[in-house]
Design goal:
This protein has seven helices and ten strands. It is of the alpha/beta class.
């Protein structure tokens, strides 16, 4: 277990409301938690519990209606460039090649061309996309598209990687392979990226990957429970202790 030496991001009594045609709706209410540097945290909960909204507040895409998001001890205002997002629907621009899609975030951060190309080549290799540099998204499978999305997020070398159901659109075997590769990246302490927060509906996926799981209640989303996963890696689904954790998460969701 990573020693709790440094809080990377902290949510303090965060509430988020949206104004809809039928009136104001509270999606998230009074959520507080800390993510320590080096942790892998999963967030699970029913549909509509505000899981994706929570990620967007951590990224700075959405401000909280109440409360505060602190990053490295300072209140976060606007987009946090120390974070990067991986989306469920890949989020690739169809008119750009694999290399150009990966380079996009670096270009937005005004990095010079030599550095951008070096990072693109590095992370194409890391996620196994060699030979597809000039391919367009329409020519790629779902798994390869998500590899591009992952490489794009990793290439900016964020301190915090945020993932919104990154494996839910993939077939079972592709999902397993990408989860294993993600764990390899996370556990390699030579990488800048060693803190990850993932939203998922898949409880077994959360237990397989995470140090800690946060369980949200139905809307408005509140923290209904928190579970630390004390299992050695690699984790086996047939392990009776793994099944016990699955049951505990289900009971907290219920």
């Amino acid at each position: 277990m990573i020693p709790e030496a440094h809080t990377l991001i902290e949510l303090q009594h965060v509430t988020r409301r949206f104004m809809l045609p039928q009136g104001e709706v509270t999606v998230i209410e009074n959520i507080s938690f800390k993510a320590m540097e080096g942790e892998f945290i999963s967030i699970v909960g029913p549909s509509g519990a505000g899981k994706s909204t929570l990620l967007r507040m951590m990224n700075g895409l959405l401000p909280p209606s109440e409360g505060a998001v602190l990053y490295n001890g300072r209140e976060q205002r606007g987009i946090n460039l120390d974070t990067a997002m991986v989306f469920q629907n890949f989020g690739l621009l169809p008119w750009l090649t694999v290399s150009q899609n990966i380079e996009l975030g670096l270009e937005a951060r005004s990095k010079d061309v030599v550095y951008r190309r070096s990072q693109v080549n590095r992370y194409i290799t890391k996620v196994g996309l060699e030979g597809y540099e000039e391919a367009y998204p329409r020519e790629l499978s779902g798994g390869m598209k998500q590899r591009v999305g992952l490489a794009r997020a990793l290439a900016v070398e964020p301190s915090l990687l945020l993932m919104d159901e990154p494996f839910s659109s993939l077939d079972v075997l592709t999902s397993i392979n990408l989860r294993n590769e993600l764990l390899d990246i996370w556990s390699d302490r030579e990488n800048v990226v060693n803190t990850m927060i993932m939203v998922t509906h898949n409880i077994e996926e959360a237990i397989e990957l995470s140090d800690r799981i946060l369980i949200l209640s139905n809307r408005p989303g509140k923290i209904a429970g928190e579970l630390r996963i004390d299992l050695p890696r690699p984790r086996r689904k047939r392990d009776p202790l793994f099944s016990e954790y699955v049951d505990r998460v289900f009971s907290l969701l219920a």
